[in-house]
Every structure is written in C-alpha cells, then in structure tokens.
Amino acid sequence: MTLLFFVIFFLLIDLYFFQGVLWASKNWTPLWKGVLRIGFWIPTVLAITAITWWTFGNPYTISTSARNFVITGVVAAYISKVLGILVLFSEDLYRGARWVAGYFGVGVNEKLPGAIIPRSEFLSKIAVATAALPVGAFAYGIISGAHDYRIRRVTVKMKNLPKSFDGIRIGQISDIHSGSFWNKTAVKGGVEMLLNEKPDMIFFTGDLVNNQTSEVKDFLPIFEKVKAPLGVYSVTGNHDYGDYHKWASPEAKSKNFQDLVMSHKAMGYDILMNENRIIEQSGEKIAIIGNENWGVRFSKYGNLEQAYQGTDEAAVKLLLSHDPTHWDAQVRPKYPDIDMMFAGHTHGFQFGVEIGNFKWSPVQYVYKQWADLHREGDQYLYINRGFGYIGYPGRVGIPPELTIVELKRAVGP
C-alpha cells in the first residue's frame, strides 16, 4: 500500500509538470526536444525502482556512495519539479480566475500591444528554468563543495592552563563517514592539509563510518598517516555503532563494532571508550577525556562519570564528545571543571550561508550550537563542521572543516 501511494504521488507530480515541459520545448530542435522529454522521466524510473527495491529487496547490496548518489538524484529532481509546479500553478490560478469571470459575464481583456510569447509558453519556460536551479546547486555542491577542505583557526585563552602547555596546538577532525567518499585523491589531500599544520596533538571526534566498519578498509592507509607528537585521540559517534543498519544477528552487529574499535587502533589512534589520558610536561598535567557517543536525540552509550574518574590532578580537562547537545545536557551542569569540549555531529547540515560573522543553516532550528566556538563562563565548546558527508554527497555553503585550536594562558583577571 505504501509503495502504491508513493508511485502515484511521483506520477502525479511528473504528469503535472510534464505539461509545462511539453510547452517549453515545443519549438526546440527534435534532438534537444527528445533529450529533455526522455530525460525528464529518468528520475521517475529511478524513484520507483529505488522505493520498490527498498521495500522488497536489500539496498545494502550496493555501496553507500552509490545509494547516496541515487537518493540525491531523486531528491534533487523532485525538489526541482515541485518548484516548477509552483510556477505552473500560478498559471492555473489565472486560468481559473478567468473562467470564473467569464462564467459570471465579467469581461477579461487580454489584448495587449506588441507581439508577446503566449502566456502558457512563457510561464512553462520560467518553470523549467526555475526547476533547473536546484539541480545546478546540488551538482555544484558535489563537484566543488564535497572536498573543498578549509582550515579554521581558533585561539582559546584559559586561566588555569599550565605554562608548559601555553601555545599548544590541537588539530581536530570529525565525521569522516568513509562510506560516502567518492574521491580518494581529494580525501588524501585533506589529510595532508591537516598534517601540514603540524599540530601538537590531534582529536578525532567520531563517526568514522556510516554503518559498517568495512567502509573504512580502503581508507586506512590514508587516515593512519594522521600523527602528532603528543598523540592522536579519538572517540565514537552515533553512526559507528551500526544502529542504522539491518544486521543478520546481534552478534554480527557486536562484531562490527569490535572491528571499528580495532580500526582506530590499527590507524594508531588512542580510542577513548569512556576513559581518559593524562598528558604530562615539565611536571604539569592536562587530561584528555573521551566519552562514547551521548546525545539528547541519539544513542547514549557514553558514561561521563566513568570517563572523568582520575582527572582531579589535571590543571585543564579537555573532553572529546561527538554530539554537541551533551554540553548543555550534562557537561556544564555537572562538570564545571571540564574546560573545553570538542564535538562534531551536525555537519552544519552540509548546506547554509556563511558570510563574515553571519551564519545560517537549517540545522540551527534543531541544534542550539551547531558550529564554531561557544563559551559559557570559563567553559568552552567547539563544534567542527565535519570532514566528510552523509546522504547528500556534497556541500553547499558549508565546506568540510579541519580545525586548529591553540590554547593560550589568559593574562590578568
């Protein structure tokens, strides 16, 4: 029943908009007319095939990257068609108003001076042009935005930062989502950008894969090159547990997660599973605390009480926790001596506008903090926009991020 509903829904959208396509292309050459009219139905076939496969088959038999491209193509096509329909619908409203006026004997004068394109043909062309804009934006985000890595530098001043750690530079990478990658060369270039910054230590704040640990296999030789003098520390994100995949058995899911933990270790990352590490220099200490995923809306595998234990001797405490909602929900109310939390998760929705100090993304209607540095009293939160992508295999206006955070001793009161 659900399948039939979606098939009818897609066909109604297509049939309505196709009338505009016919009008808009009626004076085109036979070749281009055929290309447009045949190409118009390709997303329809893809959509119906994808829904049928998802209902009766197993979509996980193809790669995540391939699924993302199919889903993106269908979504982009139908967003475009809906926008075009809005233009065509304005013409139908006009026609309806003219019919009502005629029915009641009210004259409608359409005789205007000069030669003009008939109204229906003109609006049909506007509708087709309008529909082309989202498709162009989606394509641009894939080709140009997916791997347009940007370095973001942030300085954080802390009153209690030990002198031996003054000026320490921390690199942060988050949300790799290796199963979505389609350009290995570009991924390698992003890792090299991070290494060229020569950070003293590096934090990876979760989501190595989309669902299955096997996704990262081909990228292990790239990400194992991520090294730093004081170590690379990592935690898990909500996607790392396989919660969004259909497993053959609970044992298979558990084995997948064990393999993911081993992948972190194979790359040389010190994965922190609700635990901490004390870093000592010149007799002074800071703590790196790693919490498994804990979010208000998503899975709560993390145990901050356990992760925090044994950090009393550290002058500064730095927390790695994937989901930024953890900060307001637990960290600030219960652990006022955790100086800074590093998070990711939101991806900045992979879509938005950032011009100077102005930032907008649809994700801000879901997350209070979704990117950049935030401060409450003496506590800080930094949210990385993510290295990879999921779902839509690109980014528009929110490029992938590599972060360099420099910690400095605060001077004065």
Describe the fold and architecture.
- This protein is of the alpha/beta class.
- The chain has two domains: 143 residues, no CATH class; 260 residues, 4-Layer Sandwich (Purple Acid Phosphatase, chain A, domain 2).
- Helices cover 40% and strands 17% of the residues.
- It has ten helices and 14 strands.
- It has a six-stranded mixed beta sheet, covered by helices on one side.
- Helix 1 packs across helix 4, helix 3 packs across helix 4 and helix 4 packs antiparallel against helix 5.
- The protein starts with a helix and ends with a strand.
- The relative contact order is 0.13.
- About 2% of the residues have low confidence.
- What characteristic shape results from the CA principal axes? elongated
Number of helices: 10
CATH superfamily of the largest domain: Metallo-dependent phosphatases
As a percent range, the share of strand residues is 15-25%
Provide the CATH architecture of the largest domain: 4-Layer Sandwich
For this structure, the CATH topology of the largest domain is Purple Acid Phosphatase, chain A, domain 2
Arithmetic mean of pLDDT: 87
* Helix proportion range: 25-40%
The poorly predicted ranges are 111-117
Number of domains: 2
